[in-house]
Structures are given as structure tokens and as C-alpha cells.
Amino acid sequence: MRFLALTAISTFAACALLAADAAKEPSQSQIDEIIQKFAANESAFAQARESFTYKQSAKLQLLDEAGNPTNEKWEEVTDITFTSDGKRSEHVIHSPVSTLEKIQMDPGDLEDIRHTQPFVLTTAELPNYWVRYLGRQQVDEITTYVFAVKPKKIEPNKRYFSGEVWVDDRDLQIVKSYGRGLGQQKHSEDHQYPKFETYREQIDAKYWFPTYTIANDTLHFKDFDQRLKMTVKYEEYKQFKSDVKITYGDAVDDKDKKPPTPPVKKP
Predict the structure, then answer these.
(1) Contacts from 45-51 at CB under 8 Å and sequence distance 24+?
(2) pLDDT means per 10 residues in the chain (267 residues)?
(3) DSSP codes of every residue in 12-75
(4) Which of 5, 41, 76, 105 is the most exposed place for a label (fewest CB within 10 A)?
(5) Total domain count for the chain?
């Protein structure tokens, strides 16, 4: 929870000041500065995440028209680790035979799970996107700036995010994103991708790490519609060459670090 330290001001006046501050919208120059700052913080986060191991669990379940699970599903559990010489490695540790028949996972789906759903808008990627400020929004206990994000153009063999991101107004990092993946597929083929929502949590009391993605959507193919539910969990974050294992809700060993901001509640 955040607060302002006010001296010799009544509780009523303090509340009024807080409400006025929350209602005040940033100017265009301030918005531009916020975008540059949160992109720089996202760049630092992306680099920091590269030094963490974690487990990624993805599951796709097809649903019938009433929303009930069918027998068609796909799932995969991957360990993101490092080799003995320090190189990053992905190792599938659980992958039962897919029972999907009506639809199939394609390279775009797999790219979304690995990179698009845990969307990171870095300084290097910023020129590739239109970023438009939508306003302030309270997300649980976190005050955020909301931005619409859309790729300026679609380059061949590249996947993009299109949707909205919620940026913590204190840490200036993305805490939630909602949208879908775009690009990479051929126009002559019938590819459809669900809208998804990704939530982050403060894992090391500094950076916001993606921890949960959910998609509950209907895909509209040329010949039929298909309901589905997909969940992706990113768990057991552990810094490489560290003896401290950090998972959801665990305390951080370093007592000098600030307390983590309460995470956004998941659906």
C-alpha cells in the first residue's frame, strides 16, 4: 500500500489531495517520458530475467459450445535452465501425446507462449510499436498507466504483440498485458490466435516477472468456430548460481530491499 506523508494537514484535506493527484493526467511530454522510462526499465528487466531459471507449464484445452472440456488437449512443461558452461537451455520435461484433432498448434502458438504472451516492451523494440496513452487505472492495490500497443508494420518471420499494457506508476514496469499475437503466418492459410491476459509479480522485489497467462476465447476459422482455454504458468524462478529459490509469495533474502508490491489478483 502506498501513502503520502503529510504534515499538519487534516485527514479530509489529505484525502482530497490524494484524490486530486490521482485524477490529474500527465501532459504529452510527461507521457513521452513515462514511455521512455518504462521501456528502459523493461530492457533492464529482460536482461535480468535472462539470469533466472524457471519452469514453464502450458496447457491448451478445447471446449464445447457450452464451455465444457472436450477430450482434445495439448500440454507441455519446460525447464528453462543453464548448461554447465553457462548457456541458456530449454528442456521439455513433460509432453504427453497431444489429443488435438480439430485444430493444431503452429509455430505462431509456440512463439506466443515463449515470447509474445510474457510481453516485454524494451527500448530496442519501442520503435516497432505505436504506443498510445489511455489513462490511469487502479488494478487491485496498484495504480497504473494504461497504454494501447500496436505494431507499426508486420515484418516477415516475426511475431508481435497487439493489445494493452498496464504500467505500475511507481516502478514504471508492465504489471499486466492483454491482447493477442500477430504476424508470421501466411495469408493463404487459416491461422487464428486467442486473446490472452498475462499477469506479473515482483519476484526479486525489483522487477516484475510474468507468472500467469490465461486465454479463454473463441477462434473463428473459415469453416467453424472453436472455443478454448489456455493457461501458462511461469514458476520456480531461481537466479542462476544462487542458492536462494524464489517462488510465488516467498520472502526475499536481502533484508535491505524494499517490500514487494502486492501482486495483481489473477482471475
Answers:
(1) 45/120, 45/173, 45/207, 45/208, 45/209, 46/120, 46/122, 48/204, 48/206, 48/207, 49/207, 49/209, 50/88, 51/239, 51/240
(2) 36 44 80 98 95 96 96 97 86 96 93 95 97 95 96 92 97 97 75 96 93 97 96 94 46 46 63
(3) HHHHHHHHHHHHPPPPHHHHHHHHHHHHHHHHHHHHHHTTEEEEEEEEEEEE-TTS-EEEEEEE
(4) 5
(5) 1
